[in-house]
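Quick one: PapC/FimD family outer membrane usher protein from Siccibacter turicensis, structure tokens please.
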Amino acid sequence: MARAKKTKLSALAICIFSCCHTSAISAEDIEFNTDVLDVKDKQNIDLGQFSKTGYIMPGTYTFKIKINQNEMDEQDINVYASDADKNDSRACFTPEMVKKFGFKADYEKAFTLWHQNQCVDITALRGIEVHPDLGESQLSISVPQAYMEYVSDDWVPASMWDDGVPGVLADYNVNAQTRQNDGEGDQNTISGNGTLGINLGPWRARADWQGNYDSRADDQNLSGQKKWALSRMYLYRALTGIKARLTLGEDYLNSDLIDSFRFAGASVVSDDNMLPPNLRGYAPQVTGVAKTNAKVVISQQGRVIYQTQVAAGPFAIQDLSTAVSGDLDVRVEEQNGVVQTYRVTTANVPYLTRPGSVRFKFFAGKPTSYDHTANGETFGASEFSWGISNGWSLFGGAITSGKYISLTAGIGRDLLALGAVAFDVTRSDAKLDDEHRHGQSYRVSYSKNFDETGSQVTFAGYRFSEKSFMSFNDYLQYRGSDDDYMQSKEMYTVTFSQQFARLGISAYLNYSHQTYWNNPAEDRYSLSLSRYFDVGKWKNLNGSLTAYRNKFDGENDDGMYLSLSVPWGDTGTLSYNAAMDSSASSHNVAWYDRLASGDSYRMSAGGSDDGGSLSGYYDHLGEQAELTGNLDYQHGQYRSAGVTMRGGMTATAHGAALHRANVMGGSRVLVDTGDAAGIPVQGYNGSTRTNRFGKAVIAEVSDYSKNSLSIDINSLPDDAEATSSVVQATLTEGAIGYRKFNVVSGQKAMAILRLADGSFPPFGATVRNALSQEVGIVNDEGETWLSGLKPGVKMNVSWDGKVQCAFRVPENVMEPNRNGTLLLPCRTAVDDI
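--- reply ---
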């Protein structure tokens, strides 16, 4: 019986629209032929909500605004009766809202005002249409593209960027490791880093922290050492009008012309992320080879900026921030106790700027040391790049502090088919205690993709500095160490890749060579060769060879890594690898697989000069954190275990949730599904479910780019319905976005609504819950298929353009009458319900 009634009611909307025709009087008016409706009481019908295209009752609604294909954050919008037709209604867009819609300034002049000049009539521009949809809680605005600022599939103008909501965040990355040595003392280590933050409007307050605890024990002694510190504290915000970022507090000078150093003060820097994606810069990449399961720590001048666990073999870390520049210190801590250290110089492509554009950076403050104390006099620095024409760019910069000054001038040229090149000269002048030094430094850099040969020179550079030249970093170190600093002489840097299409071989070369006037040279070579091939029925086998040399502090670390992998099944891979260096060699067979849940694991067994070994590695992409664990056993030497947990907590006035963390202190979106728990929400990288309070945080989002979040409607709980399943967010850097999905949760049942006088609400009346979500439409004789039923919840019934009665869902909502139908009295004294 209940099934038949539900089918009859679900056809109501089809019946309504099949019975209507457009009036000849007005394109907005719709008339209905009610004679064809199978309704017993044809005098008791209310189709008023369908008689006007897009009509909704006056009131305040929470709408998601969608302009063409671009969505804005959800906000409260008033709906008023139209000035021209009191039987019609219109959404009120305030002048503040319209400024965010992305209209070109010239066209905004055509807008008119209505409702006592409080609302902007954007439809005064020909071709603009507004379509409200209460079911989707969405206002769709169709605008001819000629009226809008530049947009693309993944980028919107600054007027549509979202600063997010006020809130606090705490992101962390914690590593724990224990090692039991045969014949020696045991060792336990816990280390971590993270970011604490507060957001208020466009402002972001951040404090980076890092800590370490190390304990060692043997038969006689137990020792422990622990450290914890706030490594950096600062405020920043976007200056969208000039496409730049303002930073106050502790920072690192991020320059293409001046060596990076730590300082406390202020900076205003052009931000590439505020440009369309095809105009943005790049993030540095750190590569290396881990001989065992290992922890990789990347730091800059004592501040840890990234650490992670990696499996044995070559690794490439590509998710560093684009704000990172200068020299990076890399530390690879192997499970067998061996530590690799080397330095990576981040390189930029030649300094070219698009025609007519000016890029700039300004810095002022005092240099500081890692413990936050001043380490020099007040300085000022600046740089710029100006695109003179399609082929030429002019750039330069300066830094001055007390008795030091340096000036840089350079020029860049786009050579078209031959690539791009840049050349610059820097002159320094430093007055020291016992002498006056002045000298020059020369630099040339080059970049080119050779499509016809499959070659790519990502960066190639050479720099020569005279012995009397002092960079500002040299000047600071001289003052602190009395001339005991490393004086740079020559530096070569090459990043090169080559595709040998006929042979199916890919080659990648990374080379850097640094010499000093007063220290041994440093070198880093890395060459990788890889090839995919088939052998009989085995397809897509992959063989690779990596050779490297790290020369640092006068010592060489040479090695080679050979691997062969064979795909097995849908997700598994069987592999063999061999590692050799100057002191030892090893051979391993490994099995890797990715599970349906998204987790992955790796198991290996092998032998080395020191004996047999076993190891395991497991990565779990959890909803509240990412967990990585590893186990290692080396016969006759040690047993070790390690775990990494990476995640965060975000809290706002709308709610809070634990979550995975992508960029420490970076942007994220708080997703709200009301009181519906366990709703699966998908982001760019993986999915999560809302917690018991209906909240979830998606941290895998990009700054200044459109991010789409969606509900997996195929995995919804049985007691939930999603009337809107996709939202978008374009966030400024570090923002906490807030997006609400229209999800109705609760039981579903057939009910009969009856008024106090024994009559029924009219056919076509709507039922809404406290969140103004439509949960049912009244059929003949009060029959209504209702969703979102929860004990004690109040629901309103509307017809003739207003709320007419209300009822509360009984505590025994799942105990219907004999006919399988709930009997619900609808009272007209709405406030007393």
